[in-house]
Amino acid sequence: MEAESKAELRRECNRVLRAAGCDDDVIRHCNAVADLALELAHRHHESVDERLVFKGALLHDLGRARSHGINHGVVGGAMARALDLDEELVRIIERHIGAGLTAAEAETVGLPPRDLLPETLEEKIVAHADNLIAGWKRTSIDAVIADFKAELGESHPAIKRMLALHKAVVIEL
């Protein structure tokens, strides 16, 4: 992705986030996630849409303008649809929570009972880049797994999914 195109996309998406009501910390986080996501995308350069990854990462927390709960992905997806954004972007926004949620897990936490697991490589890259950014600083997969275990329990299926996501995005080429 060319530097000029990247800068233009960043400005455009930051305007969307600000207009929606996202605060500076959310915008800073989204920009850090986008930078890491683009680095990860470069590893898969022949099979990934880098522009979609970058734009999806910049907008992944659009829903934080209205919610900081686990529902912010679904809320952001609805906001993105209302803005008439491409469905590929909507799916990135909806499916970026952790390593994704099964329909049963979504229902358990009060979300619509539908599959919110990242499917495309672009969705996986953005979800995993988000996991590896704490605030706006990079963290390790070990720290992420430790946090998941502390929050969800040692044997929660999300931990296995997180490790599989890491392998798919970071290790396998």
Tally the helices: what do you get? 9
- Sequence stretches where pLDDT stays below 50 over 5 or more residues: none
Q: What sequence of helices (H) and strands (E) makes up the elements?
A: HHHHHHHEEHH
- Please state how the strands of the largest beta sheet are arranged side by side: 1-2
What would you note in describing this structure?
By secondary structure, the protein is an all-alpha fold. The protein has one domain (3-171): Hypothetical protein af1432 (Orthogonal Bundle), CATH 1.10.3210. The protein contains nine helices and two strands, in the order αααααααββαα. The protein has helices at 3-20, 24-43, 50-59, 72-82, 87-94, 103-108, 121-131, 141-152, 157-171; strands at residues 133-134, 137-138. A two-stranded antiparallel sheet has the order 1-2. The chain is globular and about 45 Å long. The model has no long low-confidence stretch (mean pLDDT 94).
